[in-house]
Every structure is written in structure tokens, then in C-alpha cells.
Design brief:
Strand content: 5-15%
Low-confidence stretches: none
Structural class: alpha/beta
Distance between the termini: 29 Å
Number of strands: 9
Largest sheet: 9 strands, parallel
Shape: globular
Mean pLDDT: 92
Length: about 260
């Protein structure tokens, strides 16, 4: 059982939902990312999603695109991210998931990526432009290495896609709450709950919902139907706007407000 599965099992026993927080690795630099990870955990984050800076982040809105630019400007690459995660693991066992587009992973080498990710202490990977069913080589290597692969489903996903993602995913399923890019405004409707219920009948994995969750109010509403929520752009925006001296307390305070919201009965 890896750290992701342990975390969801522990939360289930406590009847809690998971708070998954996204930040871009290397924004503004990898040394600060390490401090940010500690700040997020102190605030109550249960899992950490680390973005890999990339020049063509198709699924991301302006806030995360700019963060990717800052990460690239600071010289962040996969080798540096693995070194940073390895350093984090000396003191911290919170589950860490890398979110990367496929091109950087392919350029690094699939087998080499899996090996170095595991050696560093990465627990899972999200590759949004690698669909389930078109990634047998990746899935096989990741499974052999003990890395979870978290596939995405969206409101537009077909029954066939839901079936394939349910078969191929490990760790949890990432449900995209809206048809669009990260940071877009979320519109609440009964469709999210009914779609999650439909997926739940086809998979035993936890289902976490992301995209558009920006406030404790959003977190509360979405967490009613999901096993976890994922918050990215709202956190990345605070990293961009906060002064260095206020960054850690600011992030801890915001994440704590999200966690308190999803703990409400």
C-alpha cells in the first residue's frame, strides 16, 4: 500500500474528505517550493500535487501558465524536481503527485522517469494529455515501479471513456468539474453529483474533483459529493501575489480555511 492509498484509507476511517493542493514546482524556485510544501501540510493538505513547468500547458489557465513560466525561468527541470522531492522525503511523508504533460516525461525517458520518480519518493503521476487506453507502455512501467497513474474524467467523458479510466487508474480518479481550463469559474449544478455517482458505480477508487475551486465555499459544496477536492489556481495565485516574507503564513492560513470548510458536517 503506497502513501496515496494509505492517506485515503486514513481519511475514510475519520470520515473526512481529502484536500489536495496544487503548486508549480520551481515557482519561484525549488528551494521555496520545499518551504511551500511544508506550509501546505501545516495548513491541512492531505496530498500535494506538483506541477512540472512546461512551455505548452494546454489544460491550464493564465494563472498556472504564468507559474510555469516562472518555474522555467528559475531553471526548474525534472532532475531538479526529483532532487527536491528526495530532500522533502527526509522530513515529510505526505503523498506527492507529479502533474506533467507527456512531452517532458517522454524526453526524460519513460523507464528512467519511473525509476527516478520512485527513488525520489514520488507516489503518483497525472499526465493530462495521455489518455487511458493509449498509454499501455506507460501504464505497465508505472505499475511495475509502484507509481500510481491518476487519469482524468470530464463532464463530456463517454461511457466507454469512463470504463477505460476506471480500469486503468490507480490511486484515485480526477474528475474535472468543468469543461475548460484551470482557474475558470465553477458553476454549481446537480450534474457534478450525478456524474460522480455514475463513476462511483464503475470504480472502487476514490474520486477527487478539481478545476474552478477557489474558496472555502466552493470547497464545501464540491466536497459533499466527492472523496477529495483539488485546489490549484487559487493557491498558485497567492504564491504570485504574496511577498516572500508573508508567503508561508499566507498559504498555511488559506489552506487551513479550505480544510476547515470540507470538515463541516
Amino acid at each position: 500500500m503506497n502513501r496515496i492509498e494509505k492517506s485515503f484509507q486514513k481519511l475514510k476511517l475519520r470520515e473526512e474528505k481529502a484536500l489536495i493542493t496544487y503548486v508549480m514546482a520551481g515557482d519561484p524556485d525549488l528551494r521555496t517550493t520545499q518551504k511551500i510544501i511544508a506550509a501546505l501540510e501545516d495548513g491541512g493538505a492531505d496530498l500535494i500535487e506538483l506541477g512540472v513547468p512546461f512551455t505548452d500547458p494546454l489544460a491550464d489557465g493564465p494563472v498556472i501558465q504564468k507559474a510555469a513560466g516562472r518555474g522555467l525561468k528559475s531553471g526548474t527541470d525534472l532532475a531538479g524536481i526529483f532532487r527536491m522531492v528526495k530532500s522533502v522525503r527526509k522530513h515529510n511523508q505526505i503523498p506527492i503527485i507529479l502533474m506533467s504533460y507527456f512531452n517532458p516525461v517522454l524526453q526524460y525517458g519513460l523507464r528512467r522517469f519511473c525509476l527516478h520518480a520512485c527513488q525520489a519518493g514520488v507516489d503518483g503521476v497525472i499526465i493530462p494529455d495521455l489518455p487511458a487506453g493509449e498509454s499501455d507502455t506507460w501504464t505497465s512501467l508505472a505499475n511495475e515501479s509502484g507509481l500510481d497513474t491518476i487519469y482524468l474524467l470530464a463532464p463530456t467523458s463517454s461511457d466507454q471513456r469512463i470504463k477505460k479510466v476506471s480500469e486503468d487508474s490507480s490511486g484515485f480518479i480526477y474528475y474535472v468539474a468543468l469543461t475548460g481550463i484551470t482557474g475558470a469559474k465553477l458553476t454549481f449544478s446537480n450534474e457534478i453529483g450525478s456524474k460522480i455517482g455514475y463513476i462511483r458505480k464503475r470504480s472502487q477508487l476514490p474520486i477527487a474533483v478539481g478545476f474552478g475551486i477557489s474558496s472555502p465555499g466552493d470547497a464545501y459544496k464540491i466536497s459533499r459529493n466527492a472523496d477529495g477536492i483539488i485546489v490549484g489556481s487559487a493557491i498558485v495565485g497567492k504564491i504570485e501575489k504574496s511577498a516572500r516574507s508573508a508567503l508561508v503564513p499566507s498559504l498555511t492560513k488559506f489552506v487551513s480555511s479550505l480544510k476547515k470548510a470540507i470538515l463541516k458536517p
